[in-house]
Every structure is written in C-alpha cells, then in structure tokens.
Specification:
mainly alpha, three-stranded mixed beta sheet, 3 strands, elongated
Length: about 220
C-alpha cells in the first residue's frame, strides 16, 4: 500500500515533465542572469506597480532562491535575493510576473479571487488527506477514505484554478515590460524563456496532483483490477 508500483507508473509522466521543467528553469534562468537589464528586479516591479496606480504595494527582499511571491493579504511583493537587487533579464522577468499578481489583485481578477478563497480548503486537503486515506484503509473505514479523497480533491481543484492565474500573470509581465520600455523586443527572448519554463513547473505539479487523485480513486474505491 505504501510502495505500490502502480502509483509511480501512473505519475511517471508528471515526474518526467517536472524534471524537464526544473532543468529548463535552471538553464534559462542562468542564461538570462548573464544579460544585464536597465533596471533591477525591484526597480522593474516598482515601475510597473506605480504605473498601475499601486503605490500602496510595498516591495521587500526575502531570503531564499526563487522564493518570490505576492502576498495579497498584506499587499506586499516579496522578491528573493537573486531578483530584488539584480540588474538582469531573469530578475526583471520574475519581478514583473509577481507584479502581475498584484495587478490581478487590484483588478479583482476572477480566477485569483476564487484561488484566494480556496486557500483554506486546499491547505487543509493537502495536509490531512493522506492521513485520512491511510487511516481509513488500515481500519477498513471506507467513509473516511472517501473523505480523504474529497479533501485531496480540494487541493487538486486549487491547483487547476491556479494555472490560469499564473499564465495570466506571465502574460501581463511580458506585455508590460515591453510597453514600459523596461525590456527591448530582442531581449524579451530571454524573459519569455524564463517565464515559459516556470509555467511548465506549474503544469507538471498540477498533472501530478490530478494523476495522484485518479490513483486514490482507483486504488481505494474498489475499481482497481
């Protein structure tokens, strides 16, 4: 039950895609880091936010690598050390993506509103679902197994909702970097590669979650041959 070969067989496509996407992110980020940009990551984000009338959104530096994110509760855009003060196309691309999330929040972008509302259920589902499924299987309590699968399904739904949010933020970033003259047309090749590679990591993570849910349904509801 804990080392079922069928599980690894089912999620193999997602694992292969994730490995490729992570390698792609590292290689494209490293290449784009070598190309100097007009502004730092923080400078690009500030320019985009101010142009959108979001002077109230603060920008902070946080530790870690690629730990960049926008916090809609505190209205703070947090950039990692390798992005905040770096004058590279990789830095401005990632910073612009996070600024895109802040603009989504300000404009009440529907998928983001739904995603933020689903955070508690997704967090609960991700933390407790496996324990509920395993406990139900050990004690032969099928309703508990079904509750666990339902909880995990909440997390899967969250990830599916998150995909258009991330894709839209990247699309906004690409458009705004060019419109505001932060990145030239020829330089956008590097930015596009970085953001597109990052998008594939979200796709891979979502695919793994979907395939895991299908495995749970097959494995624990008696439909497996």
């Amino acid at each position: 039950m804990f080392f079922d070969p069928m599980y690894f067989l089912m999620i193999a496509p997602a694992l292969i895609l994730m490995f490729w996407a992570q390698m792609r992110v590292k290689s494209t980020f490293a290449a784009a880091q070598k190309v100097r940009a007009r502004l730092s990551g923080a400078g690009a984000a500030r320019h985009i936010l101010d142009a959108a009338g979001l002077q109230n959104v603060a920008i902070e530096q946080v530790p870690g690598q690629l730990s960049d994110h926008y916090d809609p509760r505190s209205k703070v855009l947090r950039l990692s050390q390798g992005v905040y003060g770096q004058h590279s196309l990789a830095a401005v691309g990632i910073a612009a993506h996070e600024a895109g999330h802040a603009i989504q929040d300000a404009q009440h972008y529907a998928p983001l509103v739904v995603r933020n509302a689903a955070v508690p259920a997704a967090t609960f589902g991700g933390n407790i679902s496996f324990l509920m499924i395993i406990a139900g299987a050990i004690m032969s309590i099928k309703p508990l197994i079904l509750l666990g699968i339902g909880a995990f399904a909440c997390m899967v739904a969250f990830q599916l909702i998150n995909l258009p949010v991330e894709f839209d933020a990247s699309a906004r970033a690409k458009r705004l970097l060019v419109n505001y003259g932060i990145v030239g047309d020829e330089e956008m090749v590097y930015v596009n590669r970085v953001l597109n590679a990052a998008a594939w990591t979200y796709v891979a993570g979502t695919l793994q979650a979907v395939l895991t849910l299908l495995y749970y349904i097959m494995r624990f509801t008696g439909s497996r041959n």
